[in-house]
Amino acid sequence: MSSFWMIFVGAISVGTVIGCYFLLRWCLSNKTGIAEGESMGHTFDGIEEINNPLPRWWTIMFYITMVWGLIYFLVFPSFSAGHEGLFGWKSSNQGVLSMEESKEATKQAIADGKVIMYDREVAMADEKFGPIFSEIAQQTVEDLMADEEALKIGKRLFLQNCAQCHGSDARGGNGFPNLTDNDWLYGGEFNTIKTTLLHGRQGAMPAWIDTFGEDGIKELVAYVQTLSGREVDAQLAEAGKAKFAVCAACHGMDGKGNHAMGAPNLTDNIWLYGGSERSITETLTHGRAGVMPAWKEILGEEKIHVISAYVYSLSNKPSEDK
Fold it and tell me: Whole-prediction pTM value?
């Protein structure tokens, strides 16, 4: 949060409390010109309005809430996520850029006796749910596939951590794989999915514009399109076929890809970045370097075990459900 917004939010918070104080003081003063206890001259349904001040206990309660609001504001400051309140309270460690920095900040806060709310909530969650994940982690994928409650846990973890890229329905999008169609860059076996989640993946499709030039790229694009059954200029495709020998090192001579290298199958008409002529041209010209982050340090192996089972179940549903 910038300094401007810190001051803006802080001024509104404190100003509101101060404003409530002066409003209460104004309401407590008699500005009607009618003595207290006398009739205000208003009667409705037999009920007469009397000029009486607020009850003392009510007034005291108002003062207490104002004092409480100011104390709460100082102990748990709302105007900055990184600002320390009294007694060393902070909502979270701000400015960390990696898991290593986050862990170091947590250790330092503990050593300094500071209360970091986010760290405390994580610790409480681990204490409460850790045994559940430990028990699930002992189950095989076959057991988890038959355990609806375990798969629900995996789904919730997926929605919290993976849906931002792969979508809540796991069908992905441009540059993000569909996890439901049984088409996998690195293989769709349970252990392979788990390895992907644990350690991440780094795409390595190089740019070929310097090697083949624009004309060569056009020829390659034409040939690649024929692999998935599309009709193109035959001469361009034939010229591209000769150049495809370079691509075959990863994709294979038949273009069916290689799980060991994460090279996609070019014959099934399923495209991670789009299969139009324009998209294929862009891929060959500039390359692709998609990144699947590693989640081992973020979620831990036990949670990854159940997420992997959920992801595996998306493309391996029981036959009666298909």
Answer: 0.73
